[in-house]
Amino acid sequence: MELYEDEGYMDDTLWEVIREDLEGWDEEQLKRGDTNVIRKLRDFLRTWGVCVSTVDGTIAKGIERVLKEEEKAPWTEAEVLRQVKARRARSYALQDFAEELKAKATQTTPATTSSSTSNT
Predict the structure, then answer these.
(1) Around Cβ 103, how many Cβ atoms within 10 Å?
(2) What is the number of other CB atoms lying within 10 angstroms of the CB of residue 49?
(3) Which tens digit of pLDDT belongs to each residue from 16-50?
(4) Domain count, the chain
(5) Nearest to residue 9, comparing CAs of 96, 34, 30, 20?
(6) Which of 12, 15, 54, 106 is the most exposed place for a label (fewest CB within 10 A)?
(7) Are 38 and 26 a contacting pair, CB within 8 Å?
(8) Which range of residues forms the domain containing residue 50?
């Protein structure tokens, strides 16, 4: 992971490189690794812009999905907000997405006023 950080890999580039470096790995192989290392890999990927979803499985399953993706999975609003809240949003794309969400949340909709007319 240090190499990826030193090289400045993030977002799409990190996604491409990690898929190439771990090509052929599956959930079972990942589960055989040190749990803390696998957890750190998930956190590292998320921090630097690769969405690793573990909603419907284990951390190893989430990483396996990333490795087998044909296209990089998009982030959901909930996932971005979780990363921001945990202060783990270092990739430019993730920060941009978070800023868009913040701007969207602070936008105010114009108040509509209704005028009543009376017939006299």
Answers:
(1) 9
(2) 24
(3) 999 999 999 999 999 999 999 999 999 999 999 99
(4) 1
(5) 20
(6) 106
(7) no
(8) 2-97
Sequence-distant (6+) residues with CB within 8 A of 30 are 38, 59, 60, 63, 64
In contact, 68 and 53? CB cutoff 8 Å? no
Q: Is residue 105 part of a domain?
A: no
pTM for the model: 0.81
48 vs 24, 42, 118, 119, CA distance in Å? 22, 10, 62, 65
Q: How far apart are CA 76 and CA 86, in angstroms?
A: 16
The first and second tokens of residue 38, run together, are 């696998």
**Residue 109 is assigned to a structural domain of this protein:** no
| Interhelix angle 11-21/92-106, nearest 10 degrees | 140
- Tell me whether residue 92 is in a domain: yes
Name the packing angle between helices 11-21 and 59-68 (round to 10°).
100
Backbone angles phi, psi at 101, to 5 degrees: -65, -40
Structure tokens at 29: 């192989």
Residue 80 to residues 15, 23, 24, 75: CA-CA distances in angstroms?
A: 17, 26, 28, 6
